[in-house]
Structures are given as C-alpha cells and as structure tokens.
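Pilot study result, target chain (231 residues):
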Amino acid sequence: MDHLITSSNPEHPANHICTLCRNFYTLGWVTGTGGGVSIRDGAHIFIAPSGVQKELMQPGNMFVMEYATKTYLRKPPVLKPSACTPLFLAAFDRGAGSCIHTHSQWAVLVTLLVEEDAVTQGKAVLDACFEIEQIEQIKGIPKGRGKDGMLGYYDRLTVPIIENTAHEEDLTQSLEAAMERYPDTYAVLVRRHGVYVWGDNVQKAKTQAESLDYIFRLAVEMRRLGLAWVQ
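Predicted structure:
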C-alpha cells in the first residue's frame, strides 16, 4: 500500500504531515516524540505514528486508515499507531479535515492558571474554561461549525479544558463531551498536557493552532503583568 503515501506533491498528506511535524518541532510543540498530526483526504485518514521523532518524520512512517470502516490500509510494521488516533477520529466525526495535537508549554501553563483561578475563587475546576477577549489574534478563530466568518475583536474566545489521564486514548470520552458541550469550539485544552486543535482542512487547522498558541502565550505574559484576560 505504499502507493497511498508516495507522491512528489508537497501538499499530499503524507508529505504535508512531515513538513508540519518539522515546523512544529522548531516551535517546541512536539518535543520528545509528543503530539501528533492527522489529515483526512477523502476516504482516507493519514496519521503520524507514535514514537518517531517529529523532526525526522518521513512519508513511509505514515499510517493510513479507511475512514468509513476505521480499518488500517497501511501499517508500517515496526511502528505503533498514534495513541491520539481515537481523539483525531472524534474531530473527523464532527466534520474536521485535520486535527493537530501539541504539547505547547503555553497551552499547559494556561490550564494551570485557569485551575489556580478556579481554586482561588471557590469554583469547580472541572467546569472552568480558558476565556479571553479584546485581543486581535482572536480573529484567527472561526465562530463555530456551520457559522460564517471568524470571531471578532470584541468576541470572547472560550476554550474548554478537560482533565488529563494516564493514557492518551482515555481522553476520548472527555474530549467528545467537551465537543458536545461547546459545539462552536475548534480546540480543547488538556490540563497539564497540551491542546487538540482541528479545522475544516489542514491549512485552517494549522492557522488556528498558531493563533491559539499566540493567544495562550500572550495570556501567560498578561497574567505575569497583572493584566486581566476578560473585562
């Protein structure tokens, strides 16, 4: 089944995932083989494997799944499927064309700050979300699935947070619940872990992941300076 991952086109999912992994590695998003990238291309889903250094990823490392049956059409014999796979599928089941998982330090720090706020205010940590408004980069996030346009400067960005688990795949149920509770979200933070971001296609997923990471970093710096996230 190597024909599924063989192409000279840099936009082919097997090639594109490798490029994204190298770029995300330089950003510190996927160090130590952490994180993952997946792209849906018609009937097929291309998924980066587990345990491969992201900066060294090659097209031959890709797993390819038939979306309709959730069966692998291509499995590199010496590699393990990504533990993120069931979470990626949750995004694809909601219409995503690509899903990205990063271990961004800024995403992790934001979840800790939200947790600290909830405890300080006597609120339930499990119900707390990351919220921010009146930041220009919010315009990089869509209003929601099925809705036209992007969020505006005066809109409030809300990103739900779920609790981490010992095993990645055990996050699936919580991720799906967050998607149902916040149907307009294109991202879910995982406390002390990272973030899942998805989009209608890989270009939009990448743009949204970059926009969110900028916002998370800005939020951490704002808190250090004593500046509020919401008015």
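One observation from the pilot: Strands lie at 36-41, 44-47, 63-66, 71-74, 98-102, 130-133, 156-159, 161-162, 187-190, 194-199. A full batch analysis is planned for the follow-on phase.
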